[in-house]
Fold:
Amino acid sequence: MNPAIKPLAPKDSPEFDRETFLVIENVVKSFPKPDGSQFVVLNGINLTIKAQEYVSVIGHSGCGKSTLIRIVAGLEKATSGLVTLEGKAIRKPGAERMMVFQGYSLLPWLTVKENIRMAVDEVFKNLSRAEKTSLVYEHIAMVNLTAAADKYPDELSGGMKQRVGLARALATRPKMLLLDEPFGALDALTRPKLQQQVLDIWDNHRQAVMMITHDVDEAIFMSDRVVMMTNGPNATIGKVLDIPLPRPRNHHQLRESKEYHELRNQALDFLEQYQ
Amino acid sequence: MILMTLAAKANPSQIKRLSSIVQAKFLLPLAGFAGIIALWWVIALFRHEMMPTPPEALSKNLDFILHPFYRRGPGDLGLGWLLLASLRRVCIGFLLGAIVAIPVGFLIGLSRHAWLALNPLIQVFKPVSPLVWLPIALAIFNSAEPAAIFVIFITSLWSTIINTAEGVSNVPKDYLEVAEVLEMPRWKQLIKVILPASLPYIFTGLRISLGIAWLVIVAVEMLTGGIGIGFFVWDEWNRLNVSSVFLAVFVIGLTGLILDYALARLQTAMTHRSART
Structure:
């Protein structure tokens, strides 16, 4: 890995914790089939994510990558194996692993401000009203939605909705961010803009991110490592690609970079084996 | 003055749009009403022994129309009073029905056991004409007024229960997952996610229930007598005042329309999404 992008470990936390922030150990997910046998979706996933690392999981549709992030989120249970965050086992959903959903999942009867406020209210029960309000506005401003704060989700474009989803997740100050195909429902012009915006925010507030995607360019552009999955059923991790490109990154720069194209070819070569 | 300058500034496409709005909102509905009045007129002209012509009906009803709130004796009240009496019964019965139906709908929508226990009951009771409950209610209460309210109460239950249950069981999984990731306790999810998410369904049920309740009250009052728009219809028919019955048709229809419109407005205000009217 490029030492320039290696995050600085704060002195108060042991290096051990920072290197093994999220640990996925031998995770297997299977469903019983009507004939009594087991349908194995994920077969033995092992992955460790560092405290300030941006990791993408990529694979063809049906490879179980969404199931994997849902297990990390606690929304689904692994059939066997263990997921731990800072050494503590994950058994149920929790606000320290905040999820950004592909379909935005904004509550349509609440305004932008109220959607974020609801999350803040749930997570920070002990803050004063003023503190909560400022937390909400800070994150609305962070995603450039101040002008739309009082609008309802159905008055927003897809890109704006996902920025609300992101602001809602960030406002709860999670230990880890889970992005489930966050740009999947966006059009080709909105997508790079929002990718850049998310990356800029992450550059300023580095934290562990696990992102599911099926877009090779997106994965390489945003991540420190790209985890490539084999096809399902019985999917597992096929290959992990380190992305030592310097940060901060932007699309224009990367398009000129030879290293980027090499990484992209490596990723595509792998994915093409499984078509 | 302002209107004139606006008209001067308006370009042809705006005028065209305005005229199409006028056509859609006023002219075509008016044409519909004019058509039905013309049909009535034609039938009344050819078979005058059956019914009065529209101008005759209007002149005979002028007293009712101009003085809706007269009191000329213990049983001789203006149409407005009769309407209010009927509305009172409907509102009390409907509100009691909603108070029972919405929680029951929630229960059925949330619990499979409750659904299995109560759904057959609802399916059997729902097709029963609400008027069948009237003798039972009269036997229970021994008095017309609470019996009428009870029938409206029963009438109001089914659609609201079924629609509430459907709304509650169809809350998008995404919304609940957001609540779960935020570690919201179950009781809070009920209030902050499931209730608002199913409000449009609940209102659909309430609007159907209120519509049926307004249909049923007229029939109930025809049977029970007393003060009310339904008994007015029956009474006027017995006096062979068919023209008053024609007036009652319009009054009952308009009131029903206003009731539905009021609920639709309440729905828009409460759900922040426009209701289908």
Observations:
- Strands of chain A lie at 22-32, 38-49, 54-58, 80-85, 88-89, 97-100, 176-180, 208-213, 225-229, 237-242.
